[in-house]
Design goal:
The chain is α/β, with parallel strands linked by helices. The protein is built from 8 helices and 7 strands. It has a single domain, classed as Flavodoxin domain (Rossmann fold). Helices cover 42% and strands 20% of the residues. Strands 1, 2, 3, 4, 5, 6 and 7 form a 7-stranded mixed beta sheet that branches. It starts with a strand and ends with a helix. One of its GO terms (molecular function) is oxidoreductase activity.
Length: 211
């Protein structure tokens, strides 16, 4: 049994968060779907609320600090991504968008992604189609056909989740597992980490010496 890496990106702002709850449900279902297909999985979770200031600093300076770089490496190095956002003003949150704004434009090319969103009302149920899919199409990621939206009432069923929501979670997880298992393993963070454009820059001392 080979091992695949799953990155889980949650943009929830509160603790506890319905966004994180949905992300956890999607993760559990995807891990089970991978194992049913003969693949083990390791999971790394990125809580964007912990990187809000890091992301603002990156926008201003163009550089990621150590904590944010680790989060970026987790996402771009994964075999599959689960990305979940709360709905703000009929779209994904600004924090969610900012994370993808600081990624290299080719970082997610071909990456299988499961899209999820949460809101207080079902009025926002099309946010995945009209906002999230265009974003990930621009990034040339491969979004699974089934997006999973959860409104507040969807958590009121048996076991804490509505049966229709549970069905969408299971279907989307199976679609992500199919895409992940159909691709060569990337080898975790090191497999997709972007090259450091400043890695070969000579020291200031060497520049002064004309080297």
């Amino acid at each position: 049994m080979s091992t695949r890496t799953l990155a889980v990106l949650s943009a929830g702002l509160s603790t506890p968060s319905s966004t994180r709850l949905l992300a956890d449900r999607l993760t559990t279902a995807t891990v089970a779907a991978l194992r049913a297909r003969g693949e083990d999985a390791t999971v790394e979770v990125v809580e964007l609320r912990a990187h809000a200031r890091d992301l603002a600093d990156h926008l201003l300076t163009g550089f990621a600090n150590t904590a944010l770089q680790a989060a970026v490496d987790t996402v771009v190095g994964a075999d599959g991504l689960i990305a979940v956002t709360p709905v703000f003003s009929a779209s994904y949150s600004g924090l969610f968008k900012t994370f993808f704004d600081v990624l290299d434009k080719d970082a997610l090319t071909g990456t299988p992604v499961l899209l999820g969103a949460t809101a207080g009302t079902a009025r926002h149920s099309l946010v995945i189609e009209h906002a999230m899919r265009p974003l990930f199409a621009h990034l040339r990621a491969v979004a699974v056909p089934t997006g999973v939206f959860a409104a507040s009432e969807d958590w009121a069923g048996a076991g804490g989740v509505d049966q229709q929501l549970a069905g969408r979670i299971e279907r989307a997880a199976g679609e992500l597992a199919d895409l992940v298992t159909g691709r060569p393993a990337r080898g975790g963070r090191a497999g997709r980490r972007p090259a450091d454009p400043f890695a070969d820059v000579p020291s200031f001392e060497d520049l002064l010496k004309g080297r």
